[in-house]
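Input chain follows. Return C-alpha cells only.
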Amino acid sequence: MTHLLYHLVDVLDLCGPVAIRWMYPIERYMKTLKTYVRNMARPKGSMAERYIRDECFDFITEYLQRFEVV
C-alpha cells in the first residue's frame, strides 16, 4: 500500500488538485444529452436538434424578458 501512495503523490504533482480532474459535472451533462435522444436510429441528429431547440428557447425567453408586458 505504501507503493500506491507514492504513485498518488506523483499524480497529484503532475495533474494538480482532484477538483480539476473531477468527471462528475461532465457525466451529469452527458446524462442530459442522453435524454435529448428521441430517435434511436439517429441519436446524434436528434441530440443536436433538441440542443438547438433548447438554446433557441433560452435565447427567446431572455430576449423577451427585456420588454414590459402590457
